[in-house]
Protein 1
Amino acid sequence: AKAAGKNQYLRFQPEMMTALVRRTDMEAGLRLAVDNDEITVNYQPIVSPVRGEVAQFEALARWDRNGERVPPSQFIPTAERSGLISAIGMHMLQESFTQLRAWLAGSPERSLAVNVSGVQLRERDFADDVLRLAESCGMNPAQLVLEVTESVFFDHDDHVIEQLGRLRHAGVSVALDDFGTGYSSLGRLQDLPVDAVKIDRSFVSMIRTGAEKLPILSSMINMAHSLGLTVTAEGVETAAQAAYLTDLQCDLLQGYLFSFPEPDTGLEIALLRSADA
Ligand code: C2E
Ligand code: CA
Ligand code: CA
Ligand code: CA
């Protein structure tokens, strides 16, 4: 008993307490952030190398907590664990629908991509809520892309498949985010109810000037194309990467080479610039 007691004491390290406090503190702050509209949207352009223009914008969540930016890699997991991701997700959709309305109205070829968590897809009325919101904002569902990661398909949840089916039936596209990083990507791709893949940055960063051929990249792109899927490459940072991917017929490119994610004010400048080109 003495040994166990000592063990217990040893196991409860001060840094565990700190981590716990930080976690509940983050959750409390995030709850207030949602109520106080501290969550804003940044937009990153996704370009078509063939058409030479911006084809899509991806909406990315930003949280400025008392003037200090908290990265999504920190607050999104907290938001998912606490269920706050549902409110954040609807806020992201509403804000981006509204802010991109004029740009989207310019051409039916343009679309808006928004990240969706598995937690949202497991909600009872997610598809209906999204479609109702789109309608109330005057947004054509055919101009909406929902980005999901492979993990939403892990537990073969019929409800998730049904929600995605309803959305796709209404014209919404589903893109598989971080493609290539999952467990079963290539082989299982044909069974997934998706319209597009986004090749993860880790593959794009393998492209270096003068480097040897990268068969993995061409396999990923060719496989996706043979299934009729649109292919976007993420994290394109150099002109050499853009050229290499364009050569492999990659449909869309996204990354710091073209633009960082920007708030709507920066967006206007980016669009003016792209109109000049
Ligand atoms: P993601 O969906 O894979 O988004 C791409 C991330 O890569 C973004 O990070 C973006 O800023 C970054 N990025 C874009 N181009 C480049 C590049 O050329 N080089 C490098 N190094 N990075 C680039 P961010 O904005 O920090 O978002 C991180 C992750 O947080 C996202 O990864 C996404 O999984 C999640 N996230 C962001 N907003 C939302 C949201 O509204 N809802 C949900 N569920 N998740 C979100
Ligand atoms: Ca994404
Ligand atoms: Ca991604
Ligand atoms: Ca990622």
Protein 2
Amino acid sequence: NKGAYPYYMLKEIDEQPAVIHRIQSAYLNKNEVQLNSNLMDKLTNASRIYIVGAGTSYHAGLVGKHLFEKIAQIPTEVVVSSEFAYDDPLIEQDAFFIFLSQSGETADSRQVLVRVNDEWKKPSLTITNVANSTLAREAEFSVTLEAGPEIAVASTKAYTAQIALEAIIATAIGRTKNFEMAQNLDIDLELSKVANAMQAVVDEKGRIEQVAVDNLSDTRNAFYIGRGLDYFVALEASLKLKEISYIQAEGFASGELKHGTIALIEKGTPVLGIITQPQTADNTRSNLQETKARGANVITIVSESLAQTEDTLIIPDVNPDFAPLVSVVVGQLMAYYATLQRGYNVDQPRNLAKSVTVE
Ligand code: F6R
């Protein structure tokens, strides 16, 4: 039931702070992580984690790679399930597979799980929003996202829920291994700060709507750019934009633009820069400047402590490792309002189904 909301997507975007709180209640007791001890043993012994997903879930996996490598210090590879299913990868002896799937029914991802079970015989965990789904049943372990049903075709709260759970799992592994960073990380507090920051963004939706109307109403294409975690959010924000507003949108690593793609920048091309990572903020700003010099219409989405007077949208600061959870909400709302403005059905975009059960 979407209640007073015109579309499920807007309701699901608004629910995200509450979803984070539900995940905290389900998996944290104050700062202690509560997860199956067998699962924790196997994860802690892994020499490499493979994260498998499609679309938005793949994008959540990219953020997960950063978290597992930084907090749990386990080398992590993220793979697009449809590519991996028929590939001939060299699988490490102590590999552990994590499947990310909102629906738990994505055929491309299931195809990989079949090989994990039958051919490679490795331990696996499915992180899904549907407790009794195929991927949940067929993996050795499963945990649920606690996001509640996601009805809109464009995935929003499942993406942020997946990242929050990856952060919790990475913290648990890092603590078991006595890594200082994980031990000092108050994951409960950090997630509470994230939920507050998300709330501040959804409370500012009028401003985001204005930016979408001013810049995305009749453009044919658009670019999201960033570096590191900001690049991963750029990929997700651009997927949201293309799937519902039909704007030809690309997410790009900002430093890569000058190696070819900058040729596409014309007078008025919208370029949305995401800046939440202190170590690359200046680099992304110079890349934005390069596009501006070629006529781009630059829009910036920037964490408060990195903001400058000319920035378009300022978002609250959180621990930079968790900033994707906040900046992506701007991208979701931008896609939502661009689509409304262009007069399309937000919840039921053309050519798409909520869960993709064919390979
Ligand atoms: C995009 C979107 C899709 C799904 C993808 C995987 O908004 O919803 O890209 O993320 O089809 O679906 P799940 O997570 O159900 O495996």
